[in-house]
Amino acid sequence: MDDYRAASLFQPSNLAKALEDTMDPSSGRPTHLLGTIVSIPHTISARTLAVLGYDFVMIDAQHTPIEAENLVCLIQTVSLSSEGRTIPICRVPSAKSDLLPYALDAGAGGIIFPHIDTPEQAAEAVTKCRYAYSGGDRSLAPAVLVPGATDVAPPGSSHELVADKNIAVIIQIESPLAVKNADAIAAVPGVNGLMLGAGDLRVAMRCPPRRMGDPEDQEILDAIDQLVKVSRRHQKPLAVVTCKVSGASRTWLKDFQLLMLTSDYLSVVKGHKEDLARMVETLAEVEELKN
């Protein structure tokens, strides 16, 4: 992601352009961006994931207990630890969340907005991420970037214009109404991508509960097909947490460009369960040798 870095690591990398390039075969850029999720809100987790080679790390401020100062630390830890090679993305609780301005000011390259059901809500989300120069109402923070040091910008531009151009707005589709309105949502100016919220969509559709790896309900697969068509029509990339959706994954993964493979929490659970099972098996073998 070096080519998408801003002039300062305290400013957002150009995730909007990186997403656009995934939809353009002539760009010569990767068709998929690979990432993971910080759901254990500690800088140890953030700085560890930041150096593993992922294109992005999504910091989940919706479902984890994160306050403003910690959120800023997590976002900047990803940017600084990776030296800009991994872009921090933040999922905020809503467009009205008090955490949103802190995520933007910390240099998040993308913002994921959950539970967006209408184009009007999507337009509000875009507005919150843009300064008035680009038709938004984002507030200018007086003590975030250091004049002449971290507020640098290309000739003829400014750090405000850099942010307006670089920050990607990603709208999460996770209700039947959102699926119905996906075309209109994708058409909203400033929306850079859509994200399938498979878990909440499954609940909203009253699909039976399932465990990870179980066959996917046909209603979810139909919704995926619809989102893929919307993506192609509007040339807007799709995001998904890959471990949350099963079924014939090879048939739909090619149509999703922003792939979140796992999370620190899931990896801890998986690793500890596997290590425990391995040791139980080893001890059983030792007992057999003793007998």
Automatic annotation (TrEMBL):
GO molecular function: aldehyde-lyase activity; metal ion binding
InterPro entries: Aldolase/citrate-lyase_domain, HpcH-HpaI_aldolase, Pyrv/PenolPyrv_kinase-like_dom, Pyrv_kinase-like_dom_sf
Keyword line: Lyase, Metal-binding
Chain ranges passing through the membrane: none
Domain HpcH/HpaI aldolase/citrate lyase: 44-236
Source organism, top-level taxon: Eukaryota
GO annotations of cellular component type: cytoplasm
Classification via Pfam families: HpcH_HpaI
Protein name (record): HpcH/HpaI aldolase/citrate lyase domain-containing protein
